[in-house]
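[agent] plan:
  1. take the single chain provided in the ticket
  2. run structure prediction with default settings
  3. attach structure tokens to the ticket
  4. add a short note for the reviewer (M.T.)
[agent] executing step 1
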Amino acid sequence: MSKPPKKLLDQLQDAIRLNHYLYRTEQTYVYWIRRFILFHNKQYPKEMGTTHIEAFLTHLAVREHVTASTQNQALSTLLFYIASSSRCFARQTLSPLNGANSHHLQRPPHRNSEPTPDRNASKMRSPLPDLPDNKGVRYPVSEHM
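[agent] step 2 finished; step 3 output follows
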């Protein structure tokens, strides 16, 4: 008698443990894979492709208003699962996602992201601006050393 195949999430957990990831990472990866499967009405992930991943990430951004780092976490989980489950599927899926289609994963620019000349100049100064420059200063040498 042969053993029945392991369930999908058990296979994912085995792959995570094989790579010696943290337990919290395992919990997070299982969470994202479960959400991905439920988003696509319990369709098996190996039957899905790039369009399914992009639809899920777009849903996260547009409908749930998650941050770019959260989207990247979900994408990393999906790419880990794909890479650990099937090399053929990984090659097919990874190439389009690494290209220009990942525009929605970019973080928005920060306010005041360009330093003003005053800020830039202060970064170049000594961290202790009130102290004199020590160039050419000789310290007395103790004879007892």
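[agent] step 4 note for reviewer: The CA atoms of residues 6 and 38 lie 19 Å apart.
[agent] ticket updated
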